[in-house]
Design a protein that fits this description.
The protein is α+β, with helices and mostly antiparallel strands. It is built from 5 helices and 6 strands. About 30% of the residues lie in helices and about 25% in strands. Bound molecules: zinc ion (2 copies).
C-alpha cells in the first residue's frame, strides 16, 4: 500500500495485541480504522510509540485536499476532530478509515485548555 499523501510505502505497525495500523515510511502519517483510533486515544503511550514523525512535516501535509483512500480509491473527506476542532483529519467514508498526519495523534492526546473552554462554552449554549 502507498501513502495517499507522499506515495511512499506504508508499513504495518502494532501496539500490544489490540492495535494495528499502517504508517508511512516517508511522511510518517498514520492510517487506521476509526475503531483503532478510538483505542489509541484511550491507551497510554500510543503516541510515543506510533506517532514517530515530526509534527512540522505533518503540518506541511495537513492542507492537502482530495486525497485518495489507499484501500478503495475513494476521495477522502477532510473533517475537524469533534473534540479538538483545531485538528483536521482525512477520512474515507466507505472504509471508515482515517489518515492522521504526523504529530496529530500526539496533539489529540494533549487536550488543550482552549478545547476545555470551547466545550464549556458549547455546554452553556453559546
Ligand atoms: Zn506519506
Ligand atoms: Zn476507502
Amino acid at each position: 500500500m502507498k501513502c495517499p499523501k507522499c506515495e511512499q510505502a506504508m508499513e504495518v505497525v502494532e501496539f500490544g495485541t489490540e492495535i494495528s495500523l499502517e504508517r508511512c515510511s516517508g511522511c510518517h502519517g498514520l492510517y487506521c480504522e476509526r475503531e483503532i483510533l478510538a483505542r489509541m486515544r484511550d491507551e497510554w503511550l500510543t503516541e510515543t510509540v506510533l506517532d514517530t514523525g515530526c509534527a512540522a512535516e505533518g503540518a506541511r501535509h495537513n492542507d492537502m485536499r482530495n486525497i485518495i483512500c489507499p484501500s478503495c480509491g475513494a476521495t477522502m473527506e477532510h473533517f475537524q476532530d469533534e473534540e479538538q476542532s483545531h485538528i483536521t483529519l482525512d477520512t474515507c467514508l466507505s472504509c471508515d478509515k482515517i489518515f492522521l498526519d504526523a504529530g496529530e495523534l500526539t496533539d489529540m492526546k494533549e487536550v488543550t485548555l482552549m478545547d476545555h473552554v470551547r466545550r464549556l462554552l458549547s455546554m452553556l449554549g453559546r
